[in-house]
Amino acid sequence: MPEPNYRKQVTAAFPELVDIDSSDLREQVIEAWCLGLARGGWLDIEDIPYAWNIHEVSNVEHTRGVTRIAVRGAEEQRDFHGADPDFDVIRAACLLHDVGKCYEYVEFVDADRIDAPDSEYATEEIPHSLSGYALAHEVGCPLAVQRAIPHFIGEIPKRTLEAELVKSANSISSNAITQATMGISLDEWVKQYSQTQS
């Protein structure tokens, strides 16, 4: 079986990449996804589900939704309120906010893959927002991008304007997905199904 062309998959899956002005940052986002996909043993980026129990929506669709929502929110912050959000940081962090699912959701890896997931990286023990942060750090993303990736309360001590946009856009997209697929809110989904609740 030929090795998947991860770069081609990532660039096809995320047309929003072309809107990142910094070519270095754009390449870092692509590299992080390629590393995650390879280490997770995925054949196709579209195989990663939005959630372990919601397979009707792919992680790609959710990631694109988060990016689109955050960029529109940033435009309103700029145009209506006069704020100065960093659009490259927002786009890169949104595109990377769930890259860690390449590691966390390895039980959904295609059985046909010759190479098993790399057990040094791929585990459901580490929440995907933290492993996503680690991938962004590994490929050299700026600190402003890294700190906007962990999107759960308490994961970083100080939140930036861009980090808040990523977090809010993630909730907005997730609420839409859980309502459309299961007829419940994100809050209800977390209470019933979250793997990180005590």
Word description of this protein:
This protein is mainly alpha-helical. 54% of the residues lie in helices and 4% in strands. A two-stranded antiparallel sheet has the order 1-2. The protein is globular. The chain starts with 5 loop residues before the first helix and ends in a 5-residue tail after the last helix.
Number of helices: 9
Structural class: mainly alpha
Biggest β-sheet: strands ordered side by side in the sheet: 1-2
Parts with pLDDT < 50 across at least 5 consecutive residues: none
Q: Please give the radius of gyration in angstroms.
A: 16 Å
Strand content: under 5%
The run of helices and strands is HHEEHHHHHHH
Largest sheet: 2 strands, antiparallel
> Could you report the average pLDDT, rounded to the nearest whole number?
89
Task: Produce the secondary structure layout.
Layout: H1 6-13, H2 23-40, E1 49-51, E2 54-58, H3 59-79, H4 87-96, H5 101-104, H6 128-138, H7 143-146, H8 161-182, H9 186-193
Antiparallel strand pairs: 1-2
Helix pairs in contact: 1-2, 2-4, 2-6, 3-4, 3-8, 4-8
Summarize the structure.
By secondary structure, the protein is mainly alpha-helical. It is built from nine helices and two strands, in the order H-H-E-E-H-H-H-H-H-H-H.
